[in-house]
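BUG-208 | component: ligand-complex export | severity: low

The export step for decanoyl-CoA jobs runs without errors, but we want the raw record kept on the ticket for reference. Input record follows.
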Amino acid sequence: MSVSPFAEHTTRLTRSLINALVSEHDDAALASRVREIAADLSAAAEDPSVVEIRDPMRPRSRFRLDLTPASSARNPIAPPLEIRHRVRGAAEDDGTAESYADVVLPLQYQGPPGRVHGGIVALMLDQVLGDAAHASGLPPAFTRELTLTYDAGTPLNSTVRVSGRISRIEGRKRFMEGEITADGVVTARARGLWISPREQSAPASSRS
Ligand SMILES: CCCCCCCCCC(=O)SCCNC(=O)CCNC(=O)[C@H](O)C(C)(C)COP(=O)(O)OP(=O)(O)OC[C@H]1O[C@@H](n2cnc3c(N)ncnc32)[C@H](O)[C@@H]1OP(=O)(O)O
C-alpha cells in the first residue's frame, strides 16, 4: 500500500529529529536543528495535500499494510528499507527468487563505533527473509527460528545490501537463508525457519 507524500515527508523529518538527538551533543546546536525541523513539520502540516517529496519510497514489500518498525515508510523508527524482488541471474545464474534491499543506516542505528547495531542487523534480515518467505502463492508464515552469524562489522553511512531467499520448503515449513553485504563482502548471514499456522495452511487432509 502506498504512503502519502505528507506521511512519508513527516517520517523523514522525524528520522532527522532522531538523528539530531544522537548527533548533537551541544544543546545550542541541537536546538538549532530542532527549530529547522519543527518549521518544516509545521509548514507541511499547513497543507498536507500540496506536499511533494523527492525519490518517494515505492514499497514493494509483500506485506500489504506495512506499519512495522523494520520497513514501513510511515514508521520513523524503521530503517529506510525498500524491499524489492528479483530472480538471481548473471553471476549467480541459479534462477532463485530473492528479496533484497539496498539501505544506508545513519547514526541512530549504531552499535559499536561506525558499525550497525547487531539487533538492527537481525531486524533487517528477519524482515527481508520474511518477505522472501511470502513469495507469491504461499500462505502467511511467522518466524519460528532465526540464527545470525556476524562475520564482520556492517558499516554505517554507506549502502549495504540485505538479501533473503527460500532454501527449501517442507509442508508448512519454509527454510530461509540470507545475508548482508557491504561492497560485495558478506558482513552477516542468517538462516531461519518460517512456519504457517495450521489454520492458514492447506486443508486438514493435506496438512504436513
Ligand atoms: C501487515 C504487515 C505484516 C508484517 C509482518 C512482518 C513479520 C515480521 C517477522 C515477525 O516479526 S514474525 C513474529 C515473531 N514470530 C512469532 O511471533 C511466531 C511465534 N510462534 C508461533 O506463533 C508458532 O510457533 C508458529 C505459528 C510459528 C508455529 O506453531 P505450530 O504450533 O504450528 O508449530 P509446531 O510446533 O507444530 O511446529 C510445526 C512443525 O515445525 C517443526 N519445527 C518447529 N521448530 C523447528 C525447528 N526449529 N527446526 C525444525 N523443525 C521445527 C515441528 O517439529 C513441526 O513439525 P511437524 O509438522 O513435522 O510435526
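Assignee comment: Attached the raw record above. Strands lie at 84-87, 97-103, 142-150, 160-170, 173-182, 185-195.
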